[in-house]
């Protein structure tokens, strides 16, 4: 169910909830400004803002379009900011759109997806209640609070991604065969999405800090400079995490290759030993075959077996020793 909130921020900086949109706008025309927070709105809900606030219908469509990138657009009566909110729940990164309209006497926040957006607005409201002096300056201070809340939540999502990378590294080192490399591919995909969002959001803050937005007074610019610094830091962290993903993928392949090489070396050593033994016994097997035939008795005489067979056995031992010595010598010359 939609959970829209209409708040009149008085000239003293107090937040006073009002029941209807028209009431909030009427009070804002007299003093202070209006904060209009929409959660999961329909096109009809947002269309009601076109005439009283002078919003462009293209901005309304951007609020309901899920395939937009962060941006800031300037119009005659307001500025439109499209930002992203990050969350990381149950091992899955979620990027939700948050849209903001700021004018001389109003701030509109539009959260199009889920209950988490409502909690974000409530968090901004709690912070705003603690700074009535800042709210007396106009909606720019409230805009800063909302953006600051969004950026702070980005750090939580990045920390979750960083922890997943640490667990992946431990898994690679402890049990490489059971590690699932596709998890690194999912992480890299999430980091690419995060980087794309942070890059455009940093451009938004750069334009604000530069003084391009006429609805943010010069005295409030240092506040947005702080938000810009946080975004720049998160963007740098994202680049570092992307490099870490690539390094982990290379490390996983290296560990697997090392294990396969060790297994291959062990197999080669076993085959080499078996070949060594077979080579020694091949001539002995030949002699045994000849000695077992009746021609041997015919050659030595049937009455000389007591001498002939011991000599035959001695010759086999000598031949085996000679074969062993020759193979060892060849092995020393070519140890591969």
What is the C-alpha radius of gyration, as a whole number of Å? 39 Å
State the order of secondary-structure elements, H for helix, E for strand: EEHEHHHEEEEHHHHHHH
The neighbouring-strand order within the major sheet is 2-1-3-7-6-5-4
Largest sheet: 7 strands, mixed
Q: Helix share of residues? A: 55-70%
CATH superfamily of the largest domain, by name, is CorA soluble domain-like
Using the coordinates above, name the CATH class of the largest domain: Alpha Beta
Number of strands: 7
What is the CATH architecture assignment of the largest domain?
Answer: 2-Layer Sandwich
Question: Which geometry do the CA atoms define?
Answer: rod-shaped
Report the CATH topology name of the largest domain: Beta Polymerase, domain 2
- What fraction strand? 5-15%
Counting DSSP H or I runs of 4 or more residues, the number of helices is 11
Number of domains: 2
Low-confidence stretches: none
Mean pLDDT across the residues is 83
């Amino acid at each position: 169910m939609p959970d829209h909130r209409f708040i009149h921020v008085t000239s003293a900086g107090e937040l006073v909830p009002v029941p209807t949109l028209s009431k909030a706008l009427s009070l804002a025309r007299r003093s202070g400004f209006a904060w209009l927070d929409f959660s999961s709105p329909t096109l009809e809900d947002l269309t009601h803002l076109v005439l009283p606030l002078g919003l462009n219908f293209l901005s309304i469509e951007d609020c309901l379009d899920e395939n937009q990138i962060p941006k800031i657009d300037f119009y005659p009566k307001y500025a439109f900011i499209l930002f992203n909110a990050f969350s990381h729940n149950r091992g899955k990164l979620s990027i939700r759109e948050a849209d903001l309209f700021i004018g001389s006497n109003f701030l509109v926040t539009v959260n199009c997806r889920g209950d988490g957006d409502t909690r974000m607005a409530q968090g901004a409201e709690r912070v705003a209640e603690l700074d009535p002096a800042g709210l007396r300056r106009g909606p720019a201070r409230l805009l800063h609070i909302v953006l600051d809340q969004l950026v702070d939540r980005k750090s939580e999502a990045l920390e979750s991604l960083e922890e997943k990378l640490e667990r992946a590294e431990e898994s690679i080192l402890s049990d490489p065969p059971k590690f699932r490399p596709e998890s690194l591919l999912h992480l890299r995909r999430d980091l690419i999405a995060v980087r794309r969002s942070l890059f455009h959001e940093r451009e938004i803050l750069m334009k604000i800090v530069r003084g391009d937005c006429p609805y943010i007074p010069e005295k409030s610019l240092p506040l947005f400079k702080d938000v810009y610094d946080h975004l720049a830091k998160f963007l740098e962290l994202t680049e570092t995490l992307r490099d870490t993903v690539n390094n982990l993928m290379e490390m996983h392949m290296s560990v697997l290759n090392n294990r396969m090489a060790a297994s291959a070396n062990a197999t080669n050593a076993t085959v080499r030993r078996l070949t060594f033994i077979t080579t020694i016994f091949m001539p002995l097997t030949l002699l045994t075959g000849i000695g077992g035939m009746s021609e041997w008795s015919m050659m030595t005489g049937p009455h000389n077996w007591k001498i002939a067979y011991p000599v035959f056995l001695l010759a086999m031992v000598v031949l085996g020793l000679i074969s062993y010595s020759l193979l060892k010598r060849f092995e020393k010359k070519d140890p591969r």
